[in-house]
Structures are given as C-alpha cells and as structure tokens.
Design a protein that fits this description.
The chain has 301 residues and is mainly beta. Strands 5, 6, 7, 8, 9, 10 and 11 form a seven-stranded antiparallel beta sheet that branches. Strands 12, 13, 14, 15, 16, 17 and 18 form a seven-stranded antiparallel beta sheet that branches. Strands 1-2 form a two-stranded antiparallel sheet.
C-alpha cells in the first residue's frame, strides 16, 4: 500500500469466498503470522481442537466440534465465511459503525501475502458500515471482540470474486486475513450527531481557530448498504485546503474540524442533513445519505 493497500484496495473490497482450503500452499518460512504467534495458550487449552489432517496447509484448521460440542473458537457464517480464534474475548463486541485499530496480514488462500499494516509501524484504522472493507472482512470483524486475535477466511464471492483485483489478487481467489483487534476508537460526539473518531493523536498542537487554513488529505465514504469510497484527495496528487468557519464546504466538516489538531488522523462521521441532504451529490452520494471523511491533518495555519 504505499498508502497502504487497505486504502487502495482492501478498503474497497476485502472478502473471502467459498473457502476451499485444499488448494492452500505453504507460505514462506520467514513469514510469521499474527495468529500463529499470539494467544497460543488459547489453542493449547483446546487440546484436541486442532485438526492436523490438513498437512498441506500453512496452518492447522481448528475442528468445528470437540467431543460432540460446538467449538467456541470457530464461527462458520453464510457463504463459506469462517472465523477462527487463537485469543477470544467476551463482552466487548465490535458493532456496526464502530471504528477499531487492528494489526493484520492479508493473503490469498494459496499463501501469498498481498497486504499488511506492518509498513505503517502502527495499527491500521477500520470503520464499519462505510464500504471500507470487502463484505467478508467486515462480516467477520463484526463477529469479534476487542482484544481478539484470529483469522478471517473469506470465500471469493465475499471478496474480489471472479474478476480478482488487478494483478494482486487472482480471479476467484479465497482470502485469509490474520488479525489482532488492538482497541476501539471512542468518538467525540458533537452537536447534531457529528462524531469524530481520532485514531492518531497530537495533543501538543492547537485546535483550529476561525479563518485559519486547514490543509489535509482525505478519503470520503458513503455510509450504509451502498457504502463505499466516492472521493479522495490522492487522485489529484495534492491535499485539500479550506478556511475554518469561513469557506464553502459542508457544515458537518466544519463541525468535525473543531476538535482536530495538526498531525492528527480521524474519521469524521457526518449526518446527511449536514452533508448533501435530500439532494445528494450527483451520482456519488444518494439523497439522505450519511457520509464519513477519513482525514489526515497536515497543517493548521
């Protein structure tokens, strides 16, 4: 991802389809997986919960049942979606519209890694219900709790399907996302239900004042069942700027910028009435649709 592939491709479509893991080949011996190195006590405690018969896999699948009882460390969803845990928590589930920070490695089922947040040197932000992830990734994430470590196995129909993704993900490829849920990002709730999820902080900087120029990069998403990326500043190879509380941008963006500082990154969730309202935005944002800006504040002058 030079930006991180999660912004150029994963966020637009990560899904795993009909997981036929019989075709999975061993990955490079030097490639260490999150789910293979974290939370091993949970796996050991299962004892007979490891299915060692799949010797050609780069990992051992957990058994669906143990002594006739459903294995609580396995979730099988519709369409072949599967989640396996090495560390599983209770009582702090990820919900629709949440923002979380995660460590992850994404690979095709054949074993080749095509994305990871490792180059970011910090956990990556994920926000649900905006089309940031492919369907299978988001559905798997919503089965997990804060602190969980495991893998989401995504059939291709819930990922990139028959077209694949460029030369990165082959057609009809099942995916495996190894993931650690590091923390939840708690939003600041402003007037008229604008929410700001600051996922990278810089408390030494000041918040903007009237007429100051705010310069930032952004990704803009529609929320809901037709969610997805509809605009971003990177397509023009230059950031966007506007004068705080004195410029022609949507009201919700002005509100959200009240609580951010230079050097910070945040999701700004904006209700439709403070965005494009009953008219929408041409063919990009349907009428009465809430939006989310993922912003990286470069300077406030």
């Amino acid at each position: 991802m030079k930006l991180s592939l999660i912004y150029t491709c994963l966020f637009s479509a990560i899904l795993f389809v009909s997981c036929d893991f019989s075709g999975v080949k061993s990955s490079d011996d030097n490639d260490t997986d999150i789910a293979d190195t974290a939370g091993t006590d949970s796996v050991i405690a299962l004892d007979s919960g490891i299915d060692s018969t799949e010797s050609d896999l780069p990992f051992a699948l957990l058994k669906d049942t143990i002594l006739g009882e459903a294995n609580s460390m396995v979730y099988n969803g519709e369409g072949g979606l599967r989640v396996e845990w090495t560390v599983k928590n209770e009582g702090d589930p990820i919900a629709l519209n949440d923002a979380v920070l995660v460590n992850y490695t994404a690979r095709v089922a054949a074993g080749e890694v095509f994305d990871s947040n490792s180059e970011m040197k910090s956990p990556a932000p994920l926000k649900t219900n905006i089309g940031m992830m492919v369907e299978g990734w988001e559905k798997g994430l919503l089965e997990m709790n804060i602190g969980d470590v495991g893998r989401i196995m995504i059939p291709s129909a819930l990922a990139y399907g028959e077209n694949g993704y460029s030369s990165i993900v082959p057609p009809d490829a099942d995916l495996i996302v190894e993931i650690e849920i590091v923390e939840r990002v708690t939003p600041i709730v402003l007037s008229e239900s604008v929410k700001v999820y600051t996922w990278k902080q810089n408390t030494s900087a000041n918040k903007p004042e009237k007429d100051q120029l705010i310069t930032f990069d952004y990704f803009a998403y529609r929320k809901g069942s037709k969610g997805g990326l509809y605009d971003n500043s990177f397509k023009d190879s230059q950031p966007f700027s506007f004068r705080f509380e004195n410029d022609n941008v949507i009201d919700g963006l002005h509100q959200g910028m009240k609580v951010v500082r230079s050097g910070e990154n945040a999701f700004i969730e904006i209700p439709s009435k403070l965005a494009y309202g009953s008219k929408g935005l041409v063919d990009l944002v349907p009428k009465n649709t809430d939006i989310v800006y993922d912003v990286r504040i470069l300077s406030i002058d």
